[in-house]
Amino acid sequence: xxxxxxxxxxxxxxxxxxxxxxxxxxxxxxxxxxxxxxxxxxxxxxxxxxxxxxxxxxxxxxxxxxxxxxxxxxxxxxxxxxxxxxxxxxxxxxxxxxxxxxxxxxxxxxxxxxxxxxxxxxxxxxxxxxxxxxxxxxxxxxxxxxxxxxxxxxxxxxxxxxxxxxxxxxxxxxxxxxxxxxxxxxxxxxxxxxxxxxxxxxxxxxxxxxxxxxxxxxxxxxxxxxxxxxxxxxxxxxxxxxxxxxxxxxxxxxxxxxxxxxxxxxxxxxxxxxxxxxxxxxxxxxxxxxxxxxxxxxxxxxxxxxxxxxxxxxxxxxxxxxxxxxxxxxxxxxxxxxxxxxxxxxxxxxxxxxxxxxxxxx
Length: 362
Hints:
Helices cover 57% and strands 4% of the residues. By secondary structure, the protein is mainly α.
């Protein structure tokens, strides 16, 4: 039950722990700036909905719906009732009027997704259900409802389609390159959309430690007694600041094929947002409303996105990002710093001739 003490029609069995509800909340309230700018621009495009409805005939959405209906368990009052209650509660808190269908799919790999063009559907795997406790799972369900509220399911479905298409056109000269360029851009957007949905999950669960534990378990499995949230966050700090320019390049190469940010990075980003003034304002009831979405400025959203990226680069402890910041600031001896940063890529110099027992440089 929410803190207003009332129950919403169709959301009867909500948990007893009081949580704030956000009537009429716009997804802009929790979206990462890079995610929000892309969504605002797409929503402003004339004929956007018509184009994607036309595309739906080409995409395997109907096949996916039939597949989950026929070979998964649909969450309801009679099946996985505890997940059903979480789903209703999540939609109630984020004021999502139409509750999306939700399925549990037999798969030992912990995973969840929200897909669909016309109507979103949520799928969670048995591996995830068995891995997480109630509060951790509540954050995940809220995460997926956040995807539905933002409209992310549309682009996730398109990403799945384009990934499949890339395999089919790989033999065409430059065909695969063109599709992969689009997929790479979509993946960058999707990684930011995952940060947005993590925030939605926190707004639903309203327990930042539970959100952190869930991400930690996804990374390390069901050995909570062997893990520590603070130590997990320290890994993110080490990942961000450690190494040299070689490591910076490898980080980029590692993340490019991924649709999700790394678990430690997600945890660190969520903790930072949970401690921000933006989060506190939402919890205090001050947030953008859905009925104001049509008046949102595309240029303002792009400026916010650019400012966010610039702020991330400036605050980053990554060696490459530091170098970029120094370039922008006109720091001296940059060529020497670059040369020293990439020294490890070179072959070691030949040993100098000398006495047999003379020490060699490492």
